[in-house]
Model the fold of this input.
Amino acid sequence: MTSAVQPVITALGAVILGKNQQLKLSLACLLAKGHLLIEDLPGMGKTTLAEALARTLGLSYQRLQFTSDMLPADIIGVSIFNPAEQQFSFRAGPIFTQVLLADEINRTSPKTQSALLEAMEEGQVTIDGQTRPLPKPFFVIATQNPSNQMGTFPLPESQLDRFLMRIQLGYPDPRAERELLTGTDRRIILSTLQSLADAERLTVWQQQIDKIHLSDAVLDYLQRLVTHTRQSRDFVHGLSPRGLLALKRATQAWAFIEGRNYAIPEDVQAVLPSVAEHRLRGSIEDQSRMHSLTSQLLNAVDVIG
Done:
């Protein structure tokens, strides 16, 4: 069965070369109504991916460069007094968009980082005691530099947990890199991308995700994986119930991308590292070690109990 979103993945693949797995994970994150964290070195294509995703899905897009002197008002907006009308008027910040690229989020202070918490969890912001809903869909793609670089503020656990997935793009393979050198500039290709969907179509897809069937065997597998993280000494803290629900939604989204209306264990295995690795510890150091542990987790838990 051909996936309804395959044309979107193909279009994204024309801009981001050789990263089909990461593209599918990014789209799965959006379909599951989550938010995406991309950790990588500068120049890997994180910004390009965010804009390409917004363009192909026909969504409004804003990019916000985080800096050490940024304030929460720079994100959510501010009320300004209008002398002529003798009242305050609200000037919306860049968060009032459908796709928000929070670029280098760990270069700003924890206070400013926390300004995204309510928005990412509730789809709304509260300013001067008034709650303002955000556009739907609302999808945050945050990028962060490795924590060993200068001028970074590690994301606290509460902020990390707001992201359904965390991925890395990594260096391109030699074939993709040669095409970068000899082919058309990616920025030109990005500017020519056509919308293949819109907010209404995306909403329909998201509703279909909820209907992806999970058999008792797949549910048992999900629970065994989570239980193992809580009982194994390899992990300081196991996955929370919120983490389990995130893994479930991501599994359903991956099955949808694969063109099925039911999930199989391979769907769980495809999304587990990106869903679990940033939740299984409080810091983002030694990521290679955590990736090894999630691989051990998959090997330690049988698909059939």
